[in-house]
């Protein structure tokens, strides 16, 4: 029983810390030009999934995704080490949407002598919503198809089979920038179906 709960917990936290999707809306923002009722046609410089979003929204999305990728790289290193450290705690306090959950998940893994190594590969990443200029914080919710087939989970030095890593899954990730901060905080909202 503990092993199955631990495996499920690892699957959800390996990507990053948990958070909710409070108040996220979907789709591109309406045009700021009152004479235009439809988004402009795609151009070669705008990815199809970003058509209809403003230049500021596309720039924020690009920055948030870049920072999320950096977050994942550091987070993966902590899980590969399988230990709680002051460095990890400080990192989560600064970069996780919900640092105490991220820290608690790492502590659970470390306390059970689990390590998670190997690489993941994003298959695709798309915006679900981009909300800038909100009173409390900017919020971008992305959907990412993630190939985790190269992940290796060990407990007490023994490899644990992870059949859920065989096929890529879609993750919905909430990224937040608080008014007093210049960086994006990361969290996983949910794991979805295969992609």
Describe this structure in words.
It is a single chain. This protein has 195 residues and is α+β, with helices and mostly antiparallel strands. The chain has one domain (2-23, 49-194): Nuclear Transport Factor 2, Chain: A (Roll), CATH 3.10.450. 33% of the residues lie in helices and 26% in strands. A four-stranded antiparallel beta sheet has the order 2-3-6-7. A three-stranded antiparallel beta sheet has the order 1-4-5. β6 (169-177) and β7 (185-194) form a beta hairpin. α1 packs across α4 (99-111) and α3 runs antiparallel to α4. The radius of gyration is 18 Å and the shape is globular. The two termini are 28 Å apart. The relative contact order is 0.21.
Structural class: alpha+beta
| Integer average pLDDT | 83
End-to-end distance, in Å? 28 Å
Question: Could you say what the CATH topology is called?
Answer: Nuclear Transport Factor 2, Chain: A
Order of helices and strands: HHHHEEEEEEE
Strand content: 25-35%
Number of domains: 1
Task: Note the main sheet.
Answer: 4 strands, antiparallel
Q: What is the highest CATH level, the class?
A: Alpha Beta
Radius of gyration: 18 Å
The level of helicity is: 25-40%
How many extended strands?
7
Outline the low-pLDDT stretches: 1-26, 29-38
Keywords, separated by commas or semicolons:
195 residues; alpha+beta; Nuclear Transport Factor 2, Chain: A; four-stranded antiparallel sheet; 4 helices; 33% helix
